[in-house]
Amino acid sequence: MHNAPSSMLLIIDDDIAIQTSLSLLFRREGFTVRVADGPFETRAVLDEETPELVLLDMNFSVDTSGDDGLRLLRYLRERLPTLPVILFTGWGSIDLAVQGMKAGAADFITKPWQNDHLVQSVQTALRLAQRAQPPTGTASAQRKRLDAQFRFENIVGDDPILLDVLTTIGRVAPTDAPVLITGESGTGKELIAEAVHQNSRRNRQPFVKVNLGGISSTLFESELFGHVRGAFTDAKTDRTGRFELANRGSIFLDEIGDLDPASQVKLLRVLQDRTFEPLGSSKSRTVDVRVICATNRNLEEMVAQGTFREDLFYRINLITVRLPALRERPGDIPALVNFFINNLRRLYGRPNLTVEKGALNWLKNLPLSGNIRQLKNIVERAVLLAPTDVLATSDFERHLSPSVTTDRSPSSLSSILPLDQLERQMIERAMAHHHNRIPQVARALGITRFALYRRLEKYGLNYDSLDSPD
Ligand SMILES: Nc1ncnc2c1ncn2[C@@H]1O[C@H](COP(=O)(O)OP(=O)(O)OP(=O)(O)O)[C@@H](O)[C@H]1O
Ligand SMILES: [Mg+2]
User: Fold this and answer.
1) 54: which strand partners?
2) Residue 6: which residues within 8 A CB-CB, separation 6 or more?
3) Ligand 1 pocket, 188 CB below 6 A?
4) Residue range 304-328: average pLDDT?
5) Are residues 264 and 404 in the same domain?
6) Are 108 and 34 in the same domain?
């Protein structure tokens, strides 16, 4: 992609070789380039014109402590607060980059750099700077505008906090900026990660999910980077790692807060320079991936406690999106319930399914610590177990676990069934509803046919005569 000739890039570095190679690179990309040796020349350039972006070498003077670099960065931030600054540092001084990110730098690149990666980072920073405009209008008007512009069809809600999230996602999705999604369990982190990919220019390329919470540190490398045959005893064949599978697409690193320190370093390296070696191979490979991370942990706290690397944190959180808990947006609960009901109408072939208004209000006031996932489960359970198609409060209340109900009176507890009985009841109802058609019943219950047969045996349910009147 070429930029309008007006995009002026200022390169601050005192090394002539670096000045020259960077100038060449960015001129070829269509930028106008100016260079400065240090603070004095920088001021002179800024007095004449305003750059669109600055590339700043943190070790630009003989004094390699980086203090001059930081001082210059602070000066730039003060004089032109919206000007994106990308830092250069050596691998050995990543902590300097971290300090720079704290002082407001847009990104950092370690030397030696990959040209592609550097150009990508510059373009990302420029796009992000251009798109930062606050939304206007009422919530529903804003939602309509977002829907006209982006693909958010599975994401329900028009609470202002959610709309903020969607606005940010829409703005950053087309860039290659790494996105960190935080939020309690069940708030929709994975759904948002998918939306980032769907709305990016990579949407025809793979979206690869990796659950880092489930990966032991020994498996980590082989899982993410792959291995060659013979790399270890059980490596009978080559294996392609997740990063390579995600090439040209996006990689979703879920539960990133669960990563142990050794794996954190290995991950940092590939995120840093986009290269890695499969286990047992000495040949580096390069990948082009967009990184999306998620966690329900507080990474900032983990950084403070020393359990999460600060440099990795700044590498992944260029854009952070915090998903609100459902209790912060109870106004969205009715729309969510209706969305789930609508899906279930189709799934179970029950076009008349609806929820009474009173029940919607009652659901709005439930303390749902499991957030949207829990709400979805409650709705699904109620639909399966309710005797009619019009769901009332009692249909939801009856099957709640005690931890969910606010009312702890004996009458509400007495309606709770032991799990076994509940399961039996669900199967009986599903069988009746689907006239004993095993494949449909298994699908409706979300279990395999085999598992369904096992349960039918367990409860002694005769599936040939079940729906005959008794
Ligand atoms: N805004 C929304 N509209 C409709 N459905 C949603 C919304 N947010 C989440 N969901 C649904 O809720 C369920 C949980 O969402 P998801 O798996 O994305 O949560 P999560 O934050 O990744 O949870 P966890 O931390 O437990 O992994 C999914 O079935 C998802 O489709
Ligand atoms: Mg998840």
Assistant:
1) 10, 85
2) 32, 52
3) yes
4) 94
5) no
6) yes
Sign of CA dihedral 129, 130, 136, 142: negative
**CA distances from residue 406 to 266, 330, 366 in whole angstroms, order as listed:** 46, 16, 7
Residue 196 has pLDDT above 80, yes or no: yes
What is the per-residue pLDDT for 411?
A: 38
Of 432, 433, 437, 434, nearest in space to 467 by CA: 432
pLDDT value of position 127? 83
Q: Whose CA is nearest to atom 12 of ligand 1?
A: 373
**Å from CA of 406 to ligand 2 middle:** 27
Distance of CA 106 to the CA centre of its chain: 20
Tell me the average pLDDT across 394-405. Answer: 71
**Closest CA to ligand 1's atom 9:** 188
Q: Domain for residue 172, yes or no?
A: yes
Q: Over range 387-402, report the average pLDDT.
A: 83
What is the Å distance from ligand 1's center to 395 Cα? 23
408 CA from centroid of ligand 1 (Å): 28
Is ligand 1 within 6 A of the CB of residue 257?
no
- The predicted model gives 96-110 an average pLDDT of 87
Residues 6+ apart with CB under 8 A from 20: none
Instruction: Count the Cβ atoms, other than its own, within 10 Å of residue 139.
Output: 15
SS3 content of the chain, % helix, strand, coil (to 5): 50, 15, 35
- The verdict on the CB of residue 376 being under 6 Å from ligand 1 is yes
pLDDT band at 414 (very low <50, low <70, confident <90, very high): very low
Range of the domain at 202: 139-324
Report in angstroms the alpha-carbon separations of 287 from 34, 116, 254, 411: 30, 11, 19, 60
| Residues 221 and 296 reside in one and the same domain | yes
Check if 156 has its Cβ closer than 6 Å to any atom of ligand 1: yes
Residue 404 reports pLDDT greater than 60: no
User: The CATH number of the domain where 290 resides is what?
Assistant: 3.40.50.300
Query: Residues 240, 153: one domain?
Result: yes
Regarding the beta carbon of 187 and ligand 1, being less than 6 Å apart is answered: yes
**Could you give the CA distance from residue 112 to residue 89 in angstroms, rounded to a whole number?**
9
- Summary mean pLDDT of the chain: 87
* C-alpha–C-alpha distance, residues 175 and 177, integer Å: 5
Query: Domain for residue 422, yes or no?
Result: no
* Spacing, Cα 185 to ligand 1 middle (Å): 8
